[in-house]
Design a protein that fits this description.
The protein is of the alpha/beta class and 243 residues long. Helix content is 24%, strand content 31%. The chain is built from eight helices and 15 strands. The strands form two sheets. Strands 1, 2, 3, 4, 5, 6, 7, 14 and 15 form a nine-stranded mixed β-sheet that branches. Strands 8-9-10-11-12-13 form a six-stranded mixed β-sheet. The two termini are 18 Å apart. The structure holds fe (ii) ion. The site of fe (ii) ion has 5 residues, from loops.
Length: 243
């Protein structure tokens, strides 16, 4: 399953369903590789099809489905890896989390070449990339903004709220973070979440009912479960999607 816009190409990892994004830079044959998941072959094949070479690996946070193949691409293309410093511990426990989820995949956590410790603009090969800290889903979770695109990991979805009960999740902190960013970003930005479909930030603010309830903009509805994602298993494949 692939979704392509002029700037951003989505690759859906199959081993554990998550979105990896190839974000074109100003150079026609280069891209940022964002949230490389557990399906490096599909990601690499898509880059080859599109004649794109990654210039950096950037992860919104340290969960295995967002950095599981960072080591592979960092080594193959000799490119730097960007990860929030506060998520290093979670990234290093990827193998344990995979076992807990009974997923047959191996993850090597590479060294972080550029640890993110605060809100930062980074020039990467002539591109200005901004990391904004949005803790809660994990202690280090960030949004990554580039040229009208906002990569939100598991902190913000177009539909639903990504509550997972993984170690390190803090729902009260996530709520505080999302309330802060609500008016911080331009509503015209396109949100590219870690799972599920994209939409503009303005559309999500107006229409994501579970999120609006989570943030207290609409009264809680007892008939709607607080956990709005669903885990499904097909053979060895485990997937999670916001409902
Ligand atoms: Fe996550």
């Amino acid at each position: 399953l692939r979704e392509t816009t002029s700037q951003v190409i989505r690759v859906n990892n199959k081993v554990f369903s998550s979105n990896t994004y190839l974000c074109r830079t100003k150079n026609p044959d280069e891209c940022l590789l964002i949230d490389p998941g557990l399906d490096p072959e599909a990601i690499d094949a898509t880059m080859a099809e599109q004649a794109l070479r990654p210039i950096a690996v950037l992860s919104t946070h340290g969960h295995f489905d967002h950095m599981g193949s960072a080591s592979f691409f960092r080594e193959k293309y000799q490119i730097p890896f960007y990860l929030p410093q506060s998520d290093l511990k979670i990234a290093k426990s990827a193998a344990f989390l995979l076992m807990a989820c009974r997923i047959k995949a191996k993850v090597v956590t590479p060294p972080i070449d550029h640890p993110i410790t605060a809100e930062e603009w980074f020039p990467i090969a002539g591109c200005n990339v901004r990391f904004v800290q949005v803790p809660g889903h994990t202690p280090g979770s960030c949004f990554i903004e580039y040229e009208g695109s906002l990569f939100t990991g598991d902190s913000l979805y177009a539909e639903g709220v990504g509550l997972v009960d993984f170690p390190g999740e803090d729902q009260a902190v996530l709520k505080t973070s999302l309330l802060k960013i609500w008016d911080f970003f331009d509503e015209a930005l396109t949100v590219y979440p870690g799972h599920g479909r994209s939409n503009t930030l303005g559309h999500i603010k107006a229409n994501n009912k579970p999120l609006r309830r989570f943030l207290g903009f609409e009264p809680a509805d007892e008939s709607v479960p607080a956990k709005t994602g669903t885990v499904t298993r097909t053979g060895d494949t485990l997937s999670w999607e916001p409902s």
